[in-house]
Amino acid sequence: MKNINAELLNRVSEEAIKNPRKRMNYNFHKNSEELLQRMLNALEPGTYLPPHKHTEKVEIFLLLRGRVQVLLFDDAGEVFEIKELDPNSGEYGVEIPIGVWHTILVEEPGSVIYEIKEGPYFPGVGVEFAPWAPKGDNELETLKYMKELHSKLLK
Questions:
Q1: pTM of the entire structure?
Q2: Of 12, 55, 107, 144, whose CB is crowded by the most CB atoms within 10 A?
Q3: Is the pLDDT of residue 31 over 80?
Q4: Three-class SS of residue 83?
């Protein structure tokens, strides 16, 4: 049996804080060939998850603690839906359909999602990164884009 408890969430969150990318995965699956990929994803405010879409598989996020915003985009890069996840308000998760551009903005330190995807997983296969968003390699460009996204949350 694999146990998900506060001790594990705290440990993965501490690793995310130390990581320059401000996030850290903890995999429950043994390898990338498993047909069900399951992981914790500890996320800190300021982490950048480039908008992307999965071309072959559904993605599910369940927020175990913290608060995040899930943004969905059209093909032109315009936000068409925002969903706040916050277990304290009864909003626990989302299922992202195949082919929908999406990202997550982290609003609260110590946020941890449980992520589920169909496997097997091969890096770079079945995922496309949005051509209208920064890739994350230019810090100033990325910060500017994240600020723009946060401003959409206030509207």
A1: 0.93
A2: 12
A3: yes
A4: strand
